[in-house]
Amino acid sequence: MALARVLCPTTIGRESELSSLEDALLAALRGDGGVVILGGEAGMGKTRLVSELIARAQRLHCAVMSGACSEAELSLPYLPFLEAIGNRLTTENTEELKARLGPAADELAQLFPQLGRASATGADATQAKLRMFEAILLLLRDAARDRALLLVLEDLQWADPGTRELLDYMTRRLRSTNVLVLATYRMDEMHRKHPLVPTIQGWRRAGSAEFIELQPLSTDSVGEMVLAIFHETTVSEEFRDFLQERSEGNPFVVEEMLRDAVDRGDIFRTTTGWDRKALTEMRIPRNVRAAILHRLERLRKDEVDVLSAASVIGRAADVATLIAVTGMDESAVYSSLETCVAYQLLEEDQRTPGKFQFRHALTREAVYEDLIMPKRQQLHARVAQVLAARPDAAAVDLAHHLLAAGRYDDAVPVCVAAAEAATHARAYRDAADMLERAAPHVKDLVERARLLCRAGDAYWNNTEPEAARRLLEEGIANLESAGLAVEGASYRLLLGRCYWELLRNDRARHEFERARDVLEVQGPSESLAIAYIRLAGLATFNGANVEALADAQRAAQIAEQSGSDMALVWSWNFMALAEMGLGRVTQGFAHLEDSFNAAVRGGHYFQIGNAVYNATWLSVHLGRGAEAKVWFQRVVAGWPDRLDSWPIFMQALVLLQQGQVLRAIELARTALQASRDAGNAKNAWRSGLLLAHALAENLRPDEAAGEMPALSSRVESQDAVYDTTPRVRLRLAQGDPAGALADVRSLPENVGDLGSPADAVAEAAGLDPGWLRTFLDGLHVQGEVLASPRMAAARGRLALYEGRNDEALAELRHAVATFEEGGFLLDVWHAGRALAEAEARSGDPDAAGRRLNAIAAAAEAEGARLAARLARETAARLGVEVAAAPDHIDGAEDGDAVATCERMVSVLFADVRGYTEMSGRSTPADMVGRIGSLQRWASQEVGRHHGRIDKFAGDAIMATFNISGERVDHTLDALRAAVAIIDKAALAGLPVGAGIAVGPAVVGRLADSANVSVLGEVTNL
Asked: Of 695, 754, 693, which Cα lies nearest the Cα of 721?
């Protein structure tokens, strides 16, 4: 008599991994969610561990959602999320959910039509994608609103690009939430070029996900599996070791080999239990594939046909599809399914009732790979025929089966339709993949070229300029060879943009000029105007302002002639940039104002943002505080909930200049994270600079150095404007003035037509006034820029270094007064330091002292500790008395060296409620195991929260916090430890209660060899 199923009933050899998963789940319950990645080779027990954690989550009344990736080469974008959320929505009151989600419901309607009316795609692809991602996160947080949410995503090795991007985004956005994502992947598939590898490497480097990797089972664990499967008490070492070696410690392989041995009669039941043949007589297969295929030999033809069809259909197959593909009647299919389930080949899909899936991916792979190619193609063609007759079938699924069937002519239009659906769902990489897959099968060269260009556009929308460049170049060349130069020119504008993002400005200019030359012949058009706008931008960014102004004016003229309101208001932006570089500051700000107002009227959102960004940035670098306040308010009012990084960056930039250093640090961190989330390397570089600058101003040089990005290639001269002041201030925070001088000496000659960063350069060049004079004389500064406070500060410092005190006083007073009037307090404090020195050298040390005292006090109060320190150093050098800096004390954790004295402590008491009654119902061995687990968990959590276990007494625990006297929040530490212990104990069915007492106690070692003791009323709760 054979076993119906040879399966291990318990999880064996995974205690440590399961404990880590439990910790992550409990952390999510406490609002500290995140992402855990569970890796292991196929068959190592990932799914079993997932099931164990799901059971624990349900026991704790958490919401659970799960989905799996498809092994198909083409699959729906965000497939596991669609499956997980889609199943959840079937149990939700949709109207109530829509009300809770608000505008996010319309974003989600792209994927889930039952949630409302899908919002328009819009011109900003990155923003559209981020809105979609944020809407999904909001939906997940809604599901977690009562307790917590466990979201399981299985088989990441097969994840579609959209799923990889969304999960990558989530690793950075789930902190401080009660959402835990558990994702699994097969480590044996992670070859060097696998698309998931760089994502995993990034998570490891950033520490944005916790990794748990399953190792092979030990020989002892394999022995325990055998005992559990056959309900035996002993297993021979010989058989245990043989099975461990043959299976390589893989639990699934152990089960399959034992099942095969039972089927062959090598393991058999006797009147006293189970027995086996001698090892020399056993025919256990060499690998799991052989075991599975051997089992197939015992199946009837109908059963093999159903199994083969299921392997082609995909991860899960419904009965109706199996009937249609096999041509068998319903009863025959059901009979075959029952046999396959009994043979441990298939099982019912727990996520979707009525569907059947392979018990393991290895089983499906063995069956699928055993099919000869013509048979595979025939089955794929049948599946495609079934899907084509279903109006609700996804185009991407149909495309997959048509391609696998070799029906390429039929597959191409379906791939295009699937790409359009992916674009609609903001899954631009998926769209690009589908178009790129279809293109080689298009016979018409022009249509193939168009598909390649569309794929390039999709890659660019997904912030992948290199992939876009490759396809655009091929597609444009084919369009032009077919005589479609004008159509190719519109794509050349995109190709030029790709080169610009790849820091290849020479090639970008080449592409923009080629597009312009082709389009010019055709007469005025919006595309031609954009070509001139792009050229104006390149010229502006490199200080060629005369050329830039001419290109921008030509763009405006063409835009008016072609009736393009969007291009016209955009051209005014670049006219303003060029005008300011030529010293026409008032005229430039007027054009920015016109551009902003016209863009608002026309609903041109990108151009609105362009005007706001440029005007705010220019206000800061020109030292125009009044204008900065106006544009700052527009940033705050216009983008309160924007997900892109630049509005946050701009707020941080202005606040830093206004002296609000701590707030600037906070926003700069947010901007940096938002830039990384969006994959925007340029904005991430800028935000990293700003964060490093703000940290340096807060006198945290080590942190600042860690955040400081690499020196830019300075392909564009504006890069030096961005990074000079941050690098100078970091050097000064490090106490390295020589390094600051070396940094500014490396600046390109054509920097500084806006007057910035001349003031920071002058601040760093005190050791070499001669070089500074040469630098300032070489600046291309003219018109109104000459009167900017930054130029005045630079000229004043040079005069100070050269001993021209009267000139220094005049220039520096003008600079400080202008900065102060505009509210740029950080500049007031740094330039004011030089002014104080000029005052002292001019015979007024009292004025210098008052100024330096005021700077030190005001700067210190706002967190600008670098400015305060430099003011004190200047005072010391001048012999002026300034108040000493306040102490900055960092907290310390409890240590072992404890002096005996009275301290304020928090004492935690915990025990199992109803312990006596529970002990009477349970065996001593059971209670010993459960209390042992409780004590282990208590030790971990108390130590993790800076406490010390005082004693264990049966089910009771006592722990003390703040033994060292250095923990300010020791009561909060005790509370967090108590909650963690209670939650963890609940998983073992132990109802733990806890109490906390706070008060004075004598703490210390009362004898040389004694442990630390805590004495006082507080210990008598």
From this structure: 754
| Segment 450-463, tens digit of pLDDT | 999 999 999 998 88
Q: Give yes or no for a cis peptide into 195 (omega within 30° of 0).
A: no
443 Cβ contact partners less than 8 Å away, ≥ 6 residues apart: none
Q: Is the pLDDT higher at 1012 or at 647?
A: 647
Write out the DSSP string of 513-548.
HHHHHHHHHT-S-HHHHHHHHHHHHHHHHTT-HHHH
Distance from C-alpha of 162 to C-alpha of 78, rounded to nearest angstrom? 5
- In this prediction, what percent of the chain has a pLDDT beyond 70? 94
Through-space distance between the first and last CA atoms of the chain, rounded to whole angstroms: 62
CA distance 782 to 755: 9
pLDDT per position as a tens digit, 275-293: 788 877 777 666 677 777 8
Element (H, E) at 321: helix 319-326
CB atoms within 10 A of CB 549: 22
Name the amino acid, one letter, at 897: A
Confidence of residue 1 (pLDDT cuts 50, 70, 90): very low
Please give the pLDDT value at position 843.
Answer: 94
- Strands 210-213 vs 34-40: parallel, antiparallel or unpaired: parallel
Q: What is the pLDDT of residues 507-529, one digit of tens each?
A: 999 999 999 999 999 999 999 99
Copy the structure tokens of residue 449: 């070229």
Residue 864 phi/psi, 5-degree rounding, is -85, 65
Cβ(557)–Cβ(576) below 8 Å: no
What pLDDT, on a 0 to 100 scale, did the predictor assign at position 849? 95
- Report in angstroms the alpha-carbon separations of 336 from 256, 296, 305, 369: 20, 12, 9, 20
985: left (phi over 0), alpha (psi -120 to 50) or beta: alpha
The single residue listed with the structure tokens 């084919």 is 478
Region 742-752: what's the mean pLDDT?
Answer: 83
Sign of dihedral through CA atoms 349, 352, 355, 361? negative
Q: What is the pLDDT of residue 855?
A: 96
Kindly indicate the confidence band of residue 2, based on its pLDDT and cuts at 50, 70 and 90. very low
Distance between CA atoms of residues 341 and 162, nearest Å: 33
pLDDT interval class at 1006 (50, 70, 90)? low
**Residue type present at position 447:** E
Report CA 324 to chain centroid distance, whole Å: 43
Phi, psi angle pair for 159, to nearest 5°: -65, 140
* Beta-ladder partners of 1000: 904
Q: What is the mean pLDDT of residues 55-65?
A: 92
The set of residues, in sequence order, having a beta carbon less than 8 Å from that of 297 and lying 6+ positions away, is none
CA distances from 246 to 40, 76, 255, 771 (A): 18, 39, 12, 75
Those residues with Cβ within 8 angstroms of residue 511's Cβ, 6 or more apart along the chain or in another chain: 492, 493, 495, 496, 499
Tell me the CA distances in angstroms from 515 to 8, 561, 714, one per residue in order. 67, 18, 26
**Contact of 167 with 182, CB cutoff 8 Å:** no
